[in-house]
Design brief:
The complex is a heterodimer of chains A (320) and B (457). Chain A is mostly helical and 320 residues long. Chain A contains 11 helices and 4 strands, in the order ααααβββααααβααα. In chain A, the strands form 2 sheets. In chain A, strands 1-4 form a two-stranded antiparallel ribbon. Chain A has a two-stranded antiparallel ribbon with strand order 2-3. In chain A, helix 2 packs antiparallel against helix 3. In chain A, 50% of the residues are buried. The mean pLDDT of chain A is 85. Chain B is built from 18 helices and no strands. In chain B, helix 7 crosses helix 14. The radius of gyration of chain B is 23 Å and the shape is globular. The mean pLDDT of chain B is 85. The chains are: A mainly alpha (320), B mainly alpha (457).
């Protein structure tokens, strides 16, 4: 039995890596918003879902016209990033900014708003898709070369998986560059540090926050498109679980830390896939794949016990 | 408007509403009655006039409901009277008490005997109000963000559902289901188990700061849901997604004889509903008392101190972990007890009732009503439960009827009933933007928000 399990291992690790990159990409969006506003933006799950839906729609209409899958995917990524980014920006403008303008100090208020927004977005997408196609479950229609694959040392690899990994690495590097090297990044960090001082320095926090949502939303949209390409079946509620996991990943890595979000996502994806594959075999079928979520949360709790700031987070000294 | 005119207008509208509600009961008269309640609340007439007008309106709604039990706006009229009683300051306590008891124990039952749905609604509101009051201790008083509150509700519900149904025979030898009268014992038992669970979860989680606590409790909620969904194998504890049914109810023969003693003959359709309605009222009374006493105790002050400024509270020598754990365990215990009632009342328990949405709805009740404020939280629970179980459903039914009549031209795929959550979401967002302090804010929160506004200027 053990041999059979070991033979599976490389494939399992590769699948876990893929899932981990998906979580990591979503976690980046959570991290950006959290870093600036200290807000758990639950609606980010839905921004991700919108990206996924855009991905499916682009393939539905362009795949019959353009024969090259890479080109269609590029268009889908661009469109997904724009639509998701703009949606995130609109959400910020309509739902979160009025709260800041009113000087709400209670942290729960924006959280409830985020949850409300998340309901609204889910059902709006459902409404639009219902009127447009009369469908609830959307199916991705892939075209070559995306649906191609090869086997590398017993690991079955699809081209689309390689693209997913490549794009998410690019996203990580790009975001890191943006935040640490550019003027916008400096402004974002300034606003995250101290909004009123940043204002004194001539930064308009509203503009910076708006751009943060645009960037975070665009990243979520890209993640959504890649998710749709990778896992094929999409519905308006598809964002919830990955969103939850991604947030867990962000906490795991040290929330507010970009590299940490990536690491957290990878660790979580790996744990989940390993648990999902081996738990049924190891327990003789008594505990099924469903328990992978339980294990993910247990590990999170254990980690937080010993390293409350997350894997890569720094201890923040409280100002007194 | 001068006080004299206000007196005149309010009494006039109340009297007119009473007459209309009595003679031509219906939605229109109900609407006028609601206007009457609003005028009573906002026109500032003399206190005696206010109390008198509310009494007249309560009488009117009751009379109307006994004639046309299907019109729910009349029932909401009663709820509005209750809300007005709680919120209007200055009405003497004994009048508030008397009128409140009359509405709860006479008007609502009269409505309920004619249409059981109102009793059901009352029970739902009561269960959620008690849970929201429990969460109010955790979130409103101590400021600990708990996103997995429904987990404790689930633990309570399953505790009784498993032993109050044949389910327990799967893993224990003995006679199952247990006699329905064990229900009371299990309520006590659930209070203890959920409090212990609360401590066990809280012990690691409460060392963490706000948002981390939120994610850990959210995870806990998911874990409990997964367990409820999957613990049907290898040993069948929870019967998986199908849920457990039937769950035993306590024996209420004594209740029947008690009621016929005071001249109320209960039929099989309403007896349990009425019993649970009264039971929930009693429980809410207890929960409110505990809430008030805790709030005024040493712990209550410590919680508020922690909520306002954790670092300062620590510096003043308040033991962090113990104080927070107490809040967490208290909230969990309330939720567990309500779970047992929920299981017995429905005779059915399934994982569906304990999702993240349930936790969020309860949190929404606390925030919507006004964190830390007891009447606020009860009002929040009443409002959200009514919106979720009745108003949105009636509205989509209304749209569907319009469509069938050909008045409204909706595409065939658009099913209004499916978009209730959209409306719920919009309500949440608008509420947070326009009234973040809640419907009936606690004094301290109110002050905080005004201070923030000052600072903005």
């Amino acid at each position: 039995m053990l041999e059979g399990l070991l033979a599976l291992l490389p494939q399992v690790i590769f699948d876990g890596l893929l899932l981990g990159f998906v979580y990591a990409m979503i976690a980046l969006g959570y991290t950006m918003v959290y870093g600036v506003l200290e807000l758990i933006n639950f609606a980010h799950s839905e921004i991700f879902m919108i990206g996924a839906v855009v991905g499916v729609e682009v393939f539905r209409y362009l795949a019959p016209v353009i024969p090259n899958g890479i080109v269609v995917l590029l268009l889908a990524l661009i469109l997904g990033a724009i639509i998701s980014g703009v949606t995130a920006m609109i959400v910020e403008r309509l739902a979160y900014r009025p709260l800041r303008a009113r000087g709400t100090t209670n942290r729960l208020v924006p959280l409830i708003t985020a949850i409300g927004v998340s309901f609204v977005l889910q059902d709006l997408v459902r409404l639009v898709e219902g009127i447009w196609h009369n469908e609830f479950k959307l199916q991705m229609r892939l075209i070559p070369p995306l649906d191609g694959n090869f086997t590398f040392l017993t690991v079955f690899i699809q081209y689309k998986a390689l693209i997913l990994i490549l794009v998410s690495l690019l996203m990580l590097v790009g975001l890191n560059y943006l935040v640490s090297r550019t003027k916008l990044g400096t402004a974002i960090r300034a606003v995250a540090q101290d909004m009123s001082t940043a204002r004194l320095m001539g930064i308009n926090p509203d503009v910076i926050i708006s751009r943060t949502f645009l960037i975070g939303g665009a990243l979520g949209g890209v993640a959504g498109v890649l998710f749709a390409v990778q896992y094929s079946t999409i519905d308006p509620y598809v964002g919830f679980l990955p969103g939850l996991k991604a947030f867990t990943a962000a906490v795991l890595g040290g929330i507010g830390n970009i590299t940490g979000a990536m690491v957290g996502g990878l660790v979580l994806g790996q744990m989940e896939t390993l648990a999902g594959t081996y738990l049924p075999t190891l327990t003789g079928g008594n505990f099924g794949t469903e328990y992978k979520d339980v294990i993910a949360f247990l590990i999170l709790i254990l980690l937080l016990l010993f390293r409350p700031q997350g894997l890569l987070g720094q201890v923040v000294k409280e100002k007194v | 408007m001068s006080r004299q005119t206000a007196n005149f207008v309010v009494l006039g509208v109340a009297g007119l509403s009473l007459a209309l509600l009595w003679l031509t009961p219906g939605a229109l008269a109900g609407f006028l009655g609601l206007v009457g309640v609003a005028l009573t609340a906002y026109l500032r007439p003399a206190m005696a006039v206010r109390a008198g007008s509310l009494a007249l309106l309560a009488l009117g709604f009751t009379l109307a409901l006994s004639q046309v039990p299907r019109v729910s706006i009349l029932f909401y009229g009663l709820v509005a009277v209750l809300v007005a009683l709680i919120t209007i300051p200055g009405i003497p306590r004994w009048i508030k008490g008397l009128l409140g008891v009359a509405v709860l124990l006479i008007s609502v039952p009269i409505a309920g005997f004619n249409n059981t749905f109102f009793l059901e609604l009352g029970i739902q509101i009561g269960i959620y109000a008690a849970m929201a009051l429990g969460l109010n201790v955790v979130v409103g008083m101590a400021g600990l963000l708990d996103l997995g509150y429904a987990a404790f509700f689930a633990i309570g519900a399953y505790t009784w559902a498993i032993f109050g149904s044949p389910q327990a025979a799967n893993f224990l030898s003995g006679q199952f289901p247990l006699n329905g009268n064990f229900f009371y014992l299990f309520m006590a038992f659930a209070i203890i188990t959920t409090a212990i669970t609360g401590v066990l979860i809280g012990l690691p989680a409460l060392r963490l700061r706000g948002d981390y606590l939120a994610i850990v409790t959210l995870g806990l909620g998911e874990v409990v849901r997964v367990l409820a969904n999957n613990l049907d194998h290898p040993v069948n504890f929870t019967n998986g997604p199908q849920g457990i049914t039937p769950v035993s109810r306590p024996d209420i023969g004594w209740f029947h004889s008690l009621m016929s003693g005071i001249g109320i003959e209960l039929d099989a359709r309403t007896d349990y509903q009425f019993f649970f309605y009264l039971l929930v009222l009693v429980v809410i009374g207890v929960v409110v008392l505990v809430n008030i006493n805790l709030g005024n105790s040493r712990f209550g002050r410590a919680w508020i101190a922690i909520r306002e400024d954790e670092t300062a509270a620590k510096a003043m020598g308040i033991p962090m972990l113990g104080t927070k754990l107490l809040a967490f365990a208290t909230g969990a215990a309330f939720s567990g007890a309500m779970g047992v009632i929920f299981a017995a009342q429905r005779t059915f328990v399934s994982p569906e009732s304990f999702t993240l949405l349930a936790s969020i709805t309860i949190l929404g009740m606390v925030v919507l009503g006004g964190m830390g404020s007891i009447p606020g939280v009860i009002l929040g629970a009443a409002a959200l439960t009514a919106i979720n179980t009745d108003i949105l459903k009636s509205f989509s039914e209304y749209l569907n009827n319009l469509r069938q009549a050909g008045v409204l031209n909706l595409p065939s795929q658009v099913e209004p009933a499916k978009y209730e959550r959209l409306v719920f979401g919009v309500i949440l967002v608008l509420m947070m933007i326009f009234r973040p302090q809640g419907l009936i804010p606690e004094r301290r929160h109110q002050l905080e928000i005004e201070e923030a506004k000052e600072a903005q200027r």
